[in-house]
Amino acid sequence: MVKRLPFDDALRSSVGVPKRSRLLDSSPRSRVWRVRLADRSLVIVKQITDGGDTGADADTRFAREVAGLRLAGRATGPAVAPAVIATDAPARVMVLDHLHDLGRTDDWMPGYAESLARLHALTGPGDAGALPAWSGPTAADVDSFLALARALDVPVPPRAVEELTALLDRLDPAPHHALLHGDPCPGNDLRTAEGVRFVDFERASLGNGLVELAYFRIGFPTCWCAMSVTAAPLAEVEDVYRTTWRGLTGREVPGDLADACAGWLIQGDALVERAHRGTVDQLARVPAEDFAWGRVSARERLVHRLGVVAGMTRDHERLHAVGRLSSALAVRLLECWPKLRPLPTHEARPWF
């Protein structure tokens, strides 16, 4: 069935008359067209669809993306996201700048890190309420993580429970107001002549930018194409991020990157794609089955994350017991399933 371009008379009056359109690949939660107007300019038309949600949920995603894009539009100098040209709220349609993606590059991460820091630095306390607060791990995630250890016969250090409870308090997004993309994955970062720009802000929120800087270490936790970043490139991109943030805000990046990584580790929903999040306890599935998402499995993602947290917390005052538990769990998983593979490296990132 052909999906008709949702371009009403009001959009024609404000944007121009569409002459040709091409439906692009997108998630089931949206439809996206590349449109050439009568004046020969190109725009992107995106319509948020139900995608299995209720209409109210789709309306929320539309409002969230438009709000995130408009906040991102504050950037001075090179943009970090496409501009919103017009919207049709009842139809959940937005008309956006067309971005010319330059495609593959071997050295993609420094530009990504710089644009991510620039995005995060655009908002502050005065923007509280403009977007939902970032949603991080909960007490239920702590319980599930500890239950996983018990299911695999891995002893839980006495202080681990206390450390994980305190971790939840430190990850509270309330004191932080960075503009978070929500899903800064390959395919949502377009490399243009002016720098990297991010698209698809349906999960935009306000919180601590470290939870997205952590993607490099923890293996891109919301992405089907999980991957690892080796030591020298990792140090470079984290330095680029911190230097850019410091230059824009005049202060150091707040918080602890080890906390952000530990937060991703204990969230079972970060093992599955968005459609399956919030449905069952995903960590509870790990001892009985290894379920795939994209090119790697849940156990492979989990082993990587456990190793990262173990390595970051060997001498960590507030997460030392969590680090010991993570190390023991990683060893146990590899004992039980020795054919688990390491994540693909960042050189193998997919290009769209």
Which structural traits does this protein have?
single chain; 352 residues; alpha+beta; two-stranded antiparallel sheet; 14% strand
Spatially, the strands of the biggest sheet line up as 1-2-3-5-4
Work out the radius of gyration. Answer: 21 Å
Overall 3D form: globular
Portion in helices: 25-40%
Number of strands: 11
- Helix and strand composition category: alpha+beta
- Please give the largest β-sheet: 5 strands, antiparallel
Which parts are unreliable, with pLDDT below 50 for 5 consecutive residues or more?
Answer: none
Strand content: 5-15%
3D architecture notes:
- This protein has 352 residues and is α+β, with helices and mostly antiparallel strands.
- It has helices at 9-14, 55-72, 109-120, 139-151, 158-170, 210-213, 215-218, 231-249, 257-265, 282-285, 298-312, 320-336, and strands at 18-24, 30-37, 42-48, 84-88, 93-97, 178-180, 189-192, 195-198, 205-207, 292-293, 296-297.
- The protein has a 5-stranded antiparallel beta sheet with strand order 1-2-3-5-4.
- It is globular.
Q: What topology does this entry show?
A:
Layout lengths: L8 H6 L3 E7 L5 E8 L4 E7 L6 H18 L11 E5 L4 E5 L11 H12 L18 H13 L6 H13 L7 E3 L8 E4 L2 E4 L6 E3 L2 H4 L1 H4 L12 H19 L7 H9 L16 H4 L6 E2 L2 E2 H15 L7 H17 L16
Antiparallel strand pairs: 1-2, 2-3, 3-5, 4-5, 6-9, 7-8, 10-11
Helix pairs in contact: 3-8, 5-12, 9-11, 11-12
Short description:
Helices cover about 40% and strands about 15% of the residues. The chain has about 350 residues and is α+β, with helices and mostly antiparallel strands.
